Amino acid sequence: SKIELLNNLTISINACKACGLCYKRTTPTVSRGDFRSSLLICGDYPRQSDQTAKESFSGRYGKKMDEMLTEVGIPPEKVFYTSLIKCNPGKMGYFPEGDEPAKCFGYLKQQIEIVKPLVIVLTGPEAIAWVLTRGTDQSPDNPISMAEKMYRRREIYGEIRFLCIPHPITLLKVKDRVVDPKIEEACVRTLKIAKDYIVARQKDEIPPVVEIVDLKKTTVPSKKEQ
Hints:
Layout: H1 2-14, E1 32-33, E2 39-43, H2 48-53, H3 59-71, E3 80-83, H4 100-115, E4 119-123, H5 125-133, E5 150-152, H6 154-157, E6 161-165, H7 181-202, E7 212-214
Parallel strand pairs: 2-3, 2-4, 4-6, 5-7
Antiparallel strand pairs: 1-3
Helix pairs in contact: 1-4
């Protein structure tokens, strides 16, 4: 069953020592929410609040994500949350530039295969780059430019649809940060696209028309072709 497979995967993640992050963590942060969900939300790495709560998307930024989901009529408790990297990289927080993401990607891939979501929402450029656009000519540097479109990467994920938004931590009001309300509005509209697509699929209806971008691995021309 899904729960047994996920429990076994959690055991493997808790015992993982594939990279140096295992020596900085207190415990890995594997997921939060409903493993039966048709919607999977994936971040880049767990923050300190996630490690403390032992759940993905905890703390203020998790609440911001929950607020946006609620706004479009998606119960947050009916969503499966996780992240690309399962260990908090340190108190200051940074996205590792070494091979840590590659070491962790296999765990995320297994979660996707077990949960079998219809839609995956990627939050932040690092999650987008590693999960969706790696090996293509699509740049994830500005996630808001990718919002309100659906993406596919058929050679890796089949017919799963992807949506991309900035990480919700960038929407929090903190000192010296000015948050453009239009960015949050675009995030909410993107989540509404996810909901409408899932509802239509569950009712066996035709989903609303949304631009779909099929991403493919970029082939490097040989010396003869250059």
